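User: Hi! I have a protein structure encoded as tokens and I'd like to know what sequence might fold into it. I'm fairly new to this, so please keep things simple.
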């Protein structure tokens, strides 16, 4: 279940302490100040125990600590501060170290709350999955029915033809979303033959042309390091003399990803990445469909660029598959 910072209340059995508990990522989270109230300890003691937990490698900081931006009013000013939240694993470990009965009570409560939310989330997800599956089947049946009608009778009106196009396009989009949700999205219907191979010199020349045409700051396209050259090399990696990214679409998707993520330029990384992506597709003659329309719309390009920029490193493969499915010949 995906809980995004939901707040629930915890009251100690003696009724003397009330704490706002953050529920997120299938765990509960408290700040150091909240742990002070929970365990009736000083800030120095809580800090000492937390530092020792990480120093002794009992827990990993990266997976058990989150920073959250909070806004506080101090006089007439709004002060923004980042506050660290600690997961249930840290809270329990601190409780054991201070030998707190309150810590045991909190652990029992937290585990029961998590179990309740996980069960509830599973039920909700199951209902959502069944509803999506039902809608998908209904749309497919509609497409099949209209296909049968067309075989026997020519559609005479623009409205009917337009309706058919909307439904067929929508079915493909639902298929992509369904496969994404269930982590079974695959790369298919791609272009194996490459007409254009991007080089560092051509890439930099294209970036300069982009700056000359649309303007930009003095830092636009200014390389910070050698990572842009590395990004171009990465899309042509081989293993056993075989391309790791064999199709044009896969190379284009990885080009977009690497240029965004490597932050090679002082300014304009997203714009440069998006431009090189469509430029590479056009050079390979797959940016436009046979009817002259663009294979990827402007708003879709913006959405993909921002989505990749905000994505986590372990989501790379799925990001690439999404991009490929939005520019392949089926789209």
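Assistant: Happy to help. Inverse folding works backwards from shape to sequence: for each of the 331 positions I chose a residue that suits the local structure. Here it is:
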């Amino acid at each position: 279940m995906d809980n995004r910072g939901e707040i629930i209340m915890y009251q100690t059995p003696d009724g003397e302490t009330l704490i706002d508990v953050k529920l997120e990522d299938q765990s509960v989270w408290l700040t150091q100040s909240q742990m002070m109230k929970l365990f009736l300890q000083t800030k120095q003691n809580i800090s000492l125990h937390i530092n020792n937990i990480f120093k002794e490698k009992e827990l990993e900081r990266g997976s058990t600590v989150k920073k959250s931006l909070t806004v506080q009013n101090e006089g007439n000013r709004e002060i923004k501060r980042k506050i660290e939240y600690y997961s249930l694993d840290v809270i329990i470990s601190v409780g054991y170290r201070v030998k707190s009965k309150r810590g045991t009570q909190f652990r029992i409560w937290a585990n029961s709350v998590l179990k309740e939310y996980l069960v509830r989330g599973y039920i909700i997800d199951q209902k959502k999955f069944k509803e999506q599956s039902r809608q998908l089947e209904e749309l497919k049946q509609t497409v099949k029915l209209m296909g049968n009608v067309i075989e026997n009778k020519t559609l005479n009106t623009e409205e009917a033809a337009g309706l058919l196009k909307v439904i067929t396009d929508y079915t493909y989009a639902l298929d992509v979303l369904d496969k994404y949700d269930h982590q079974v999205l695959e790369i298919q219907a791609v272009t194996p033959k490459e007409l254009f191979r991007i080089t560092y010199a051509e890439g930099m020349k294209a970036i300069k042309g982009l700056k000359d045409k649309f303007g930009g700051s003095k830092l636009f396209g200014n390389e910070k390091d050698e990572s842009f050259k590395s990004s171009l090399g990465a899309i042509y990696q081989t293993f056993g003399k075989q391309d790791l990214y064999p199709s044009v679409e896969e190379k284009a998707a990885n080009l977009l990803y690497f240029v965004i993520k490597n932050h090679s330029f002082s300014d304009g990384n997203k714009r440069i990445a998006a431009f090189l992506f469509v430029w590479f597709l056009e050079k390979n003659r797959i940016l436009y469909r046979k009817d002259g329309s663009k294979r990827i719309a402007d708003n879709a390009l913006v959405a993909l660029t921002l989505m990749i920029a905000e994505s986590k490193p372990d989501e790379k493969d799925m990001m690439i598959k999404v991009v490929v499915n939005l520019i392949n010949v089926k789209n």
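A useful reference point when you look it over: Residues 121-125 have pLDDT under 50 and may be disordered. Feel free to ask if any position seems puzzling.
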